[in-house]
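tmp note - Tryptophanase
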Amino acid sequence: MKLPYAEPYRIKMVEPIFPSTQEQRSEWIKSAGYNLFNLRSEQVFVDLLTDSGTGAMSDLQWAALMRGDESYAGSRSFHELKDTVERITGFAHLLPTHQGRAAENVLFSVLVKEGDRVPGNSHFDTTKGHIEFRKATAVDCTVDQAFDTSSPHPFKGNLSLEKLRKEFTSTPKEQIPFCLITITCNTSGGQPVSLENIRQVSALCKEFSIPLFFDAARFAENAYFIQQREEGQKERSIKEICREMFSYGDGMTMSSKKDGLVNIGGFIALRDKALYDKASTLVIVYEGFVTYGGMSGRDMAALAVGLDEATEHGYLHSRISQVEYLGERLLKSGVPLQNPIGGHAVFIDALKFLPHVPREQFPAQTLALELYREAGIRGVEIGAILADRDPLTRENRYPQTEFVRLAIPRRTYTNNHMDYVAQAVENVFARRDEITKGYRIIEEAPIMRHFTVQLSPV
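out:
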């Protein structure tokens, strides 16, 4: 008989979490303005709000923390990180930042100006926010299959070459500072981009002399999907695939809180020394000296170890198998999900789950709140609230998909927790026809409103 799968690690430390009653949760979420971001962590039983900075570090990472060099300039930990990044990505020039959105802030401050258009595959919230804050436009060139949650397309993060060529030919070159590939594509459901698509996008960018950058927060998970799903890649190592992926681009931003396996940090990695020099000035202004940026030496040391661990098959197989475990159980129960299951999260299709809740009453947010009340599980809306308002008309934007994302922290929860989550979702699904009304906004910020929005039941 074939042996069952077992995680390639054992638990050395635990953190207690505490259940609560539905009555308590109903009061807590009301006090939080029906915004799950406003809850205290102790009011949450299973926290699937994000996989960003919420994972568990390894013993080798904790050991590296103790060896961190906190020198203001020329830190040994910086050079260890720089060498690791160059070995995995091929990019020789490194600028640490305190997290991914800081990396975007620095790079976009150099490259993006008012009136620009930045094509890519479903830019995520901070990326789009940084673009629109500069009065530029994020142009979604994702393949159409990404918006059909029932489609089995294995690489729903792919860019449409037809859409991209149309953008390149209809917009003056000086108004396209770069093309951006997000790996994996969070907004489309944690979906990967194929190596072939990256090659093709790179060739198209070269044809039009437009730089190509990566939002690489989950690059290792993307490489794993390439290895598992793309023809001719099965026998290659994750690190080999990563090196080839990045060989087609000019640079990357990274939120190290995802596939860096650390709790804080980010970086910019570049091929061009002239661009590095320009960005260095802004890193010094916004973050810190170029050999620490926004990070401590100990965190850079842990990140160097984490990047190596995250690009090994054993870790990635364990991590993505747990996400698939939750997704497959929900699919068997008839719960509508984005298919195939993504790399870091299960994305529930709220439009199919709650068809009676009008779009203007935010069905994904409504479902996320029901799930919290049901079992103390905190997910996040990836829908109209996150999509924000059109910067010109100030009308709500309604994306083609409305998701509740259940993001699984790395090396943190067991499959018993996944069973608990699945049963809670199934309980809500069983009474879905009773949920006919959603929420209205009573207070919101002018940009990236989902973090602080205040809501009221309709």
